[in-house]
Specification:
It is built from four helices and no strands. By secondary structure, it is mainly alpha-helical. 32% of the residues are buried.
Length: 71
């Protein structure tokens, strides 16, 4: 996919209003680009906004399996 485009759209969405979906998209892009610490921060932001969000939980689990804690 177009990772740069996805990152740009997620950042644009976050400038309008913080939302879990944009943080999940951003975190997924960051993870795909091996920016695991940044992805963990994005996942944590998503979970703060929507603690039961399935996509955010999946991102958290995927990062944990890679040895990265999501606070």
């Amino acid at each position: 996919g177009d990772l740069a485009g996805a990152r740009a759209q997620a950042n644009a969405s976050l400038k309008i209003a913080p939302n879990a979906l944009a943080y999940v998209v951003l975190g997924t892009v960051q993870m795909d680009q091996n920016q695991l610490s940044a992805a963990a921060v994005s996942a944590a932001q998503a979970l703060r906004l929507q603690p039961q969000d399935k996509a955010a939980r999946l991102l958290q689990l995927t990062l944990q399996r890679r040895g990265v804690a999501v606070q």
